Automatic annotation (TrEMBL):
Record has Secreted as a keyword: no
UniProt cross-references to InterPro entries, sorted A to Z: A-crystallin/Hsp20_dom (IPR002068), Alpha-crystallin/HSP_16 (IPR055269), Alpha-crystallin/sHSP_animal (IPR001436), HSP20-like_chaperone (IPR008978)
Protein's name according to its UniProt entry: Heat shock protein
Gene Ontology CC: cytoplasm; nucleus
Annotated source species: Phenacoccus solenopsis
Domain SHSP residue range list: 55-163
Gene for this chain: Hsp20.7b
Region (Disordered): 141-187
């Protein structure tokens, strides 16, 4: 079976359906003039999944969280620049760090928008839950730090002396003794 009819169909379908990418998941970004007026050079739906839609953003501004599980702490950095501090909630639920953000519909330069997100991070078992702290920087990065409890090193090292004895640990007995003891056990 050839893939050629499928590929041709995908190319033709994209030609007649210029708004097929309208519902891509890039809702947080504003539209560029290029998005509405000019078709991109590679616009086939087959290749659309391999094109980075955030071509105009710096990778550090992509809103992706970074997680670091270090020896002394567990740390999460999350871009929440679209939210006010009172719209972000950080809590621990069943050994998970849960970060939620929500703001109601409001107007921006492209129309009306509302945003909501929830992120869950599994906490390591040795995190001190009472000492978790969160800070929001001026550039909108939420930093959550969870210090780890010091490892209990209660294991004491005790040196045990090795004493050599002059007697064997396994005693060898005569076969005649084994037969006589075996006969006695059967009766």
């Amino acid at each position: 079976m050839s893939l050629l009819p499928y590929l041709v169909n995908e190319l033709v379908r994209d030609t007649y359906d210029p708004f097929s990418r309208l519902y891509d998941q890039n809702f947080g970004l504003g539209l560029l003039n290029d998005d509405l007026l000019r078709r991109p050079a590679i616009s086939t739906p087959i290749l659309a999944g391999y094109i980075r839609p955030h071509r105009h953003l710096h990778p550090d501004d992509s809103g992706i969280s970074t997680v670091a599980n270090q020896k002394d702490q567990f740390k999460v950095n999350l871009d929440v620049q679209q939210f006010k501090p009172e719209e972000v909630n950080v809590k621990v639920v069943d050994d998970y760090l849960v970060v939620e953000g929500k703001h109601e519909e409001r107007q921006d330069k492209h129309g009306y928008i509302s945003r909501q997100f929830t992120r869950r991070y599994k906490l390591p078992p040795n995190v001190n839950l009472e000492a978790i702290s969160s800070n929001l920087s001026s550039d909108g990065v939420l930093s959550i730090t969870a210090p780890k409890k010091p490892e209990k090193n209660d294991a004491k090292e005790i040196s045990i002396p090795v004493i050599q004895t002059n007697q064997p640990a396994i005693k060898q007995s005569n076969k005649a003794d084994e037969k006589s003891s075996g006969d006695k056990m059967e009766t």
